[in-house]
Specification:
By secondary structure, the chain is mainly α. 66% of the residues lie in helices and 0% in strands. The chain has helices at 11-18, 32-48, 54-66, 68-75, 85-102, 111-130, 138-158, 164-171, 175-185, 207-211, 217-232, 236-247, 252-259, 263-295, 309-323. The protein is elongated and about 120 Å long. Mean pLDDT is 79; it is low at 300-317 and 319-324.
Length: 324
Amino acid sequence: MATVTAAGAPATVRRAALAGLPEIARPTSVSTHRAQTLSVALLARLRDLEPGTPEHAYVRNTLVELNLSLVRFAARRFRHRPEEVEDIVQVGTIGLIKAIDRFDPGRGIEFSAFALPTVVGEMKRFFRDTSWAVRVPRRLQELRIDLARTADLLEQRLGHRPTRAELAACLHLSEEGVAEGELAARGYTARSLESALDEDAETPRTYLRLLAAPEAAYELIEDLTSLRPLIEGLDERDRRILSLRFGAELTQAQIGDRLGLSQMHVSRLLARILDELRAGLLADRDDRDARDADRSDPSEDPGDPRDDHGDHGDRGARAAGTGG
């Protein structure tokens, strides 16, 4: 069935629903005091109507519109939260509807006093279910609140921030349970890795820089890529010497025994092969540095070329020889 709003209800429905009560043209513009007085009469009338009928829906929605100010009053308590105010009001309105449906006029309780905790509870449930950056069990969500409240109380009582053991004793938990709650609390909010650690610093560091670490394997991969065509350009004997020296890790004498060469001859061959690979690798690295400088911002200094090519050449040749 479609919802019958206070403004759009037919005249016959309004008359039957109100049964002599005054009709309210604009419920949202009624003063707070008059809204309280009208709510008392409409709540009593609501109990006499059959749920699901147009008359019941009209009175129910009139009560909602009359008491929206109560929802907005409750929403102001959470105005500093990141959620949109209108989203909080919508959630609070659900709590207001629940309060209207559950309210018993015969108990002699003022409706606003009954409805406000229900409205606020619905808002808090919304925050608890949607505001966590990482989804954790509700038990741990509630434990986080208990830990925060207990920590503040114990700090006032003890004069220092309570230890995990003191929190566990006060909450009748194990220290492992407290640790689990503290760990879960870290999932409530998340910060960008690009956010600054110290906003007031002249050159603030970011979490990303704190977590980042240089990866030495990147240069090794570049060396291997550059060495591959150089090694493929060697003749078969030179490639085998590299494989035996850096792959099988044989000594020069052992290589000489396998190839029928003297140890001195193997030494000269290795020196020549490595000089050729090193020269080719240096030329390729110079080309890469030049390309990087061309792609960089002209206002920035691309930096001096690295002068440790020899070490990289030996390391690249050893890695390539291992792969061969």
